[in-house]
Amino acid sequence: MSEQLSHHYREILRGLGENPEREGLLDTPKRAAKAMQYLCHGYGQTLEEIVNGALFESDNDEMVIVREIELYSLCEHHLLPFIGKAHVAYIPTGKVLGLSKVARIVDMYARRLQIQENLTRQIAEAVQSVTQAAGVAVVIEAKHMCMMMRGVEKQNSVMSTSVMLGAFRESSNTRHEFLKLIGRSN
Ligand SMILES: [Zn+2]
Description:
It comes from Pseudomonas indica. By secondary structure, this protein is of the alpha+beta class.
């Protein structure tokens, strides 16, 4: 697998007009293949294995928010990074997720080729299916290298996407409380 990838990276270097045999590039195909595999390691993970039973009984029915989860992903259109932050909230109905698990769920989906809209939805639906929450909200704000380094070259534009499920969709109060808590409402 890694062999095959590094072979293709060698061809990419050639295609770019480089000489893959020059000293500085000798190990680049191997390193690039390894890096790319790491950046896409979410393909090898499942929700069950990520959550790994870290679901705890709780009578808390107040909104749980995990803010500013660092996010690193690759856009599926250009294979260029988009990086930013995710904010995730849910309203438990008897079960809460272990603290680090929300971040790990974000990471599992981010470490695949993505578009930001789908990533946002996949995270929301995963949290919903694991916790059976009364509602889930996910907001992602990210900067896309494919916009910053090429094309329109808009260095400061931040793309914002959100998915609201259940109570966050039905109740504007709940939604506003969430947006206020992540500092996104006026
Ligand atoms: Zn792109």
